[in-house]
Fold this sequence. Notes:
Layout: H1 17-33, H2 37-58, H3 64-80, H4 85-108, H5 115-139, H6 143-161, H7 170-192, H8 199-227
Helix pairs in contact: 1-2, 1-8, 2-3, 2-8, 3-4, 4-6, 5-6, 6-7, 7-8
Amino acid sequence: MEKNKPLKLSSNRIDGWFWQFILVAVVHLFAVQFEAEAIAIVSKSVLIPALGAWYWQHSQRQYLWFYLALAASWVGDILLTQSGVYYFIGGLLAFLLTHLIYAYFFFRSRAAMKHWQVNLILTLWCFLIVYGWYLTPFLAELRLPVYFYMAVITTMASFAIARQRKLGGSRQVWQGALLFMLSDSVLAYGKFIHPLPGQHWWVMISYIAAQFYITWGMLRDESTIQEG
């Protein structure tokens, strides 16, 4: 059982596209920090392809559903680089598809839960209710789409927490899902209520970490299956 416990990133995965993903992420965060808009747009459009290439480089199973989730995220990233309500709705729909795909496949690997998992899931749904109530006066005609999106991402995170703990990447996956919720929560506050200082920087660093952790978790899951 000891072989399934290490949490360090395996050294044989710290090469190739891993470093290219890290480089693109750093370039993007600096571009956001210093308001270099053109560089920020280009680097953001390369983030998910670089992450997908890292997954492709090391995955033995090559799950099509995972590539579809990353592709939907990539479309969402591209749409959200543009201004306007229709681009925002399009980005919302693209990430909604991402969360639906993740939720379905996380649900398939569910198992009996410990008390901490149940409590964490209940906490997420309490947060959803309170935060949704807080946002309501500011949502106008986007109220129902935002409510639905919030319910879907909370469901996705709940299924991530409920996954089998024996899977090597279970911790990374649910941590990534929580970071996704954090990123979208900050984005929603800045979009509908009031822009926050350094908002886009915090949105992107939590989003990048979320996608990385989920991808890393999927690769660790494969290692567990192979070793088992």
